Amino acid sequence: MARILQLTLNGRARADAVSDNALLLDYLREIVGLTGTKTGCDGGECGACTVLVDDQPRLSCLTLAATTEGRRVETIEALATDGHLSAVQRGFHEKLGSQCGYCTPGYIMASAGLLRRNKRPTENEIREALGSNICRCTGYVKIIEAVQHAAELCAAGLTP
Ligand code: FES
Ligand code: FES
Predict the structure, then answer these.
(1) d(CA 97, ligand 2 centre) in Å
(2) Alpha carbon nearest to ligand 2 atom 2, residue
(3) In what order do the strands lie in the sheet with 56-59?
(4) Nearest to 88 by CA among 58, 62, 121
């Protein structure tokens, strides 16, 4: 069965035909064409597919698109405004939190979700919030530093 899915995606209202069993990840990449959200393990173990649903990080490979009816979904494409990076994007850029970059959109979205609900996270809170994400390149230290820097940028007035 198919349905018309209505939601707010990256700040814009949309209505798209999707099958009842379509995954949010496939909806974003294949129907909408937003390929910033990555497919990694396709099984809920790597976090590369993380997006925000009503400000909460969600694994889009484990989320049926239909469950986002009427909700706000945000992907990595939504974060920069008028050509300016968000605090989390700047944090990853300035602290070298990204190497090959494949995991980065998922980390950035999970970090943005954290900083929206907790403006001053401790290192342990950052590690806990990113515990569902895997990076094969960085060794994680730079990622933690990137989020700590992003929190400082948020304190200076940038949006996560
Ligand atoms: S692709 Fe979704 S958790 Fe790995
Ligand atoms: S930067 Fe390469 S997997 Fe994380």
Answers:
(1) 9
(2) 100
(3) 12-19, 2-9, 72-74, 50-53, 56-59
(4) 121
Measured from the CA of 99, which atom of ligand 2 is nearest?
Answer: 1
Using an 8 Å Cβ cutoff, are 104 and 88 in contact? no
CA of 98, closest atom in ligand 2: 1
CA neighbor of 77 nearest in space, from 34, 20, 46: 34
Atom of ligand 1 nearest to the CA of 132: 3
The two structure tokens encoding residue 134: 């895997």
Q: How far apart are CA 123 and CA 144, in angstroms?
A: 7
Give the tens place of pLDDT for each residue, 102-146: 999 999 999 999 999 999 999 999 999 999 999 999 999 999 999
Ligand 2 pocket, residues with Cβ under 6 angstroms: 98-104, 135-138
